[in-house]
Specification:
It contains eleven helices and 13 strands. It is of the alpha/beta class. The protein folds into two domains: about 5-15 and about 270-385, Aspartate Aminotransferase, domain 1, CATH 3.90.1150; about 20-270, Type I PLP-dependent aspartate aminotransferase-like (Major domain) (Aspartate Aminotransferase, domain 2, 3-Layer(aba) Sandwich), CATH 3.40.640. A seven-stranded mixed β-sheet has the order 2-8-7-6-5-3-4, sandwiched between helices. The protein has a four-stranded antiparallel β-sheet with strand order 9-10-13-12, covered by helices on one side. Strands 1-11 form a two-stranded parallel ribbon. Helix 2 (about 40-60) runs parallel beside helix 7, helix 3 runs parallel beside helix 4 (about 100-115) and helix 9 (about 320-335) crosses helix 11. The radius of gyration is 21 Å and the shape is globular.
Length: about 400
């Protein structure tokens, strides 16, 4: 087969981006070069306008109450740390799932090790996700926060965040959602879903560049800061401003990156979440259906195509380590996927692939094609067959 480049690692970071994203970043670097909120001159004001507009489209996308509910960070990991460490105090109890990314598991483990809070991890079903009855049983008098991902970055399992959010709202609990694998691909309405905090990366499903992300914080929810510094206002005091979003945006903002994120979110709003979701779902169904036909392959995904799932397929092959397949696909066929633990040790412990060194993960997105999926399946089968010789 003729070599060509096929990128199928969109769960790590998406590629390509809409052309408008590249144009926006370049234009901002050249024309909107001021430091937003730090000066009164035109270049500074142009930079501020870009950040304000990016905040506005993110508000639209997630149905936040106001633009001030959206703060920008440099990755979803930082957003999750701001939420977790800004909320939890001595004696708090947290409930989370067993399919979480290390961006949730590690901060929680750190706080638990320091005896600041107590953690309960609920075993999560590969097909249906977190069971609300298990959450109900795990609640204690000192339970403060429920944390779960919307979609697992290892298995593509989708959690019913609306049901969980309604439960939290009815029981006076806070709800933090990791939307790393769902923002831009699945409908997210923070108000209807009862979400108090939503962490989202800019560089995955939102088609922005790396180094962009955000955190939605519900109105009236007070968090302690973990970073303080210059905000361009109230410089006469050593206290960090109390008001949003400046309270959590110390230091110079990534204006060119946010300009790219603005273009990415605009593309999503113009295209429509439903169209993107339907297209990615069809590609993923095609991918999984093809993989199910290859002998010696064990899939770790919600197997029924009628069950809601993310655009992720994780697997191991009996005859060859995942890392070897990844390297062969890269070097021989110019096909790019990911192998390993995907920064999610709890998930691999849950599905039983920790001793295997993780899985091979294939993650298409809106810019992949059916032909690319079919070509991947042919090349993947060749890798597996070669290992049997």
């Amino acid at each position: 087969m003729k070599k060509k480049s096929i990128y199928l690692d969109n769960a790590a970071t998406s590629f390509p981006k809409p052309e408008s994203v590249y144009i926006a970043i370049n234009k901002t670097m050249r024309e909107c070069y001021g430091n937003a909120g730090r000066s009164g001159h035109k270049p500074s004001q142009l930079a501020k306008n870009i950040i304000d507009e990016t905040r506005f489209v993110c508000k639209q996308l997630f149905n936040a109450e106001t633009i001030e509910n959206i703060i920008f960070t440099y990755n979803a990991t930082l957003a999750l740390n701001i939420a977790i460490k800004g909320l939890l105090t001595k004696g708090d109890h947290v409930i989370t799932s067993s399919l979480e990314h290390n961006s949730v598991s590690r901060p929680l483990h750190n706080l638990e090790t320091k005896r600041i809070c107590e953690i309960t991890k609920i075993h999560t079903d590969l097909i249906f996700g977190v069971c609300i009855d298990d959450i109900r049983k795990a609640v204690k008098p000192n339970t403060k926060l429920i944390i779960c991902n919307h979609i697992s970055n290892v298995t593509g399992t989708v959690n019913d965040v609306k049901t969980i959010g309604n439960f939290c709202r009815d029981n006076g609990l806070l709800f933090l959602v990791d939307a790393a694998q769902s923002a831009g691909s699945k409908d997210i309405d923070v108000q209807k879903m009862g979400i108090d905090l939503l962490a989202f990366p800019g560089h995955k499903g939102l088609f922005g560049p790396q180094g962009t992300a955000g955190l939605y914080i519900r109105s009236g929810l007070n968090l302690n800061t973990i970073i303080e510094g210059g905000t361009g206002n109230m410089s006469e005091t050593l206290l960090q401003p109390e008001f949003m979003p400046h309270r959590f945006e110390a230091g110079t903002m990534n204006t060119p990156g946010l300009a790219g994120l603005l273009a990415g979110v605009k593309f999503i709003l113009e295209t429509g979440i439903s169209e993107i979701n339907e297209y990615e779902t069809n590609l993923t169904n095609r991918l999984i259906k093809g993989l199910q036909k290859i002998e010696g392959v064990q899939l770790f995904v919600p197997s029924d195509q009628y069950v809601n799932r993310g655009n992720i397929a994780s697997l191991i092959a009996e005859s060859i380590p995942s890392e070897n397949i990844m390297m062969m696909l890269d070097s021989v066929f110019n096909i790019y996927v990911r192998s390993g633990l995907h920064c999610s040790v709890d998930a691999h412990r849950t599905i039983g692939t920790l001793s295997e060194g993780g899985t091979l993960r294939i993650s298409p997105n809106y810019f992949n094609t059916e032909i690319e999926i079919d070509d991947f399946l042919i090349c993947f089968r060749e890798c597996v067959d070669c290992s049997k010789m």
